[in-house]
Design goal:
Oligomer: single chain
Number of domains: 1
CATH class: Alpha Beta
Strand content: 15-25%
Helix content: 40-55%
Radius of gyration: 14 Å
Shape: globular
Strand order of the largest sheet: 3-2-4-1-5
Order of helices and strands: EHEHEHHHEHE
Number of helices: 6
């Protein structure tokens, strides 16, 4: 079993959808704190509708997003600081509940965690993917 991750930073919406289809993803779990985007097609409502049209379900788990100070650290290239901020955030009850929900979804269906950054190594979604896969014994596939 594999859990996919995908970042849309350098891709168009059709390219992202094609990557998801090629990987046989059934549900996208949006792990952005703010599901709005300046990139065409990637704001929550339009993204969800486009994915639905492609036969892929969409779930937004806002509390699995990086808090604003973590996003600022990541933008500045301070990945270690972003990681510390995000891990502290994940110790809170709300994010823990949404992590359990994401794990349940990934256990039942082929899922992909979606965020902005193209490189999963510099994105909190890689931390989430490790948390889910450590608990489930699955592999991570960065699309």
């Amino acid at each position: 079993m594999k859990l996919a991750t995908i970042g849309y930073e350098s891709a168009s919406l059709p390219e992202v959808i094609q990557s998801l289809r090629d990987a046989r993803v059934e549900v996208v779990i949006d792990v952005r704190a703010v599901a709005a985007s300046r990139r065409a097609g990637f704001s929550k409502t339009l993204l969800g509708a486009s994915l639905k049209e492609a036969g892929i379900d969409y779930v937004h788990l806002r509390q699995l997003g990086t808090p604003k100070p973590g996003r600022e650290a990541a933008r500045a290239g301070r990945i270690d600081q972003m990681t510390d901020i995000f891990l502290a955030h994940m110790a809170e009850p709300g994010p823990r509940m949404e992590l359990a929900r994401a794990s349940d979804i990934a256990r039942e269906r082929r899922a992909a965690l979606l965020c902005y950054e193209a490189d999963a190594a510099g994105c909190h979604r890689s931390i989430l993917a490790r948390m889910i896969c450590d608990a489930m014994g699955c592999e991570i596939e960065d699309l």
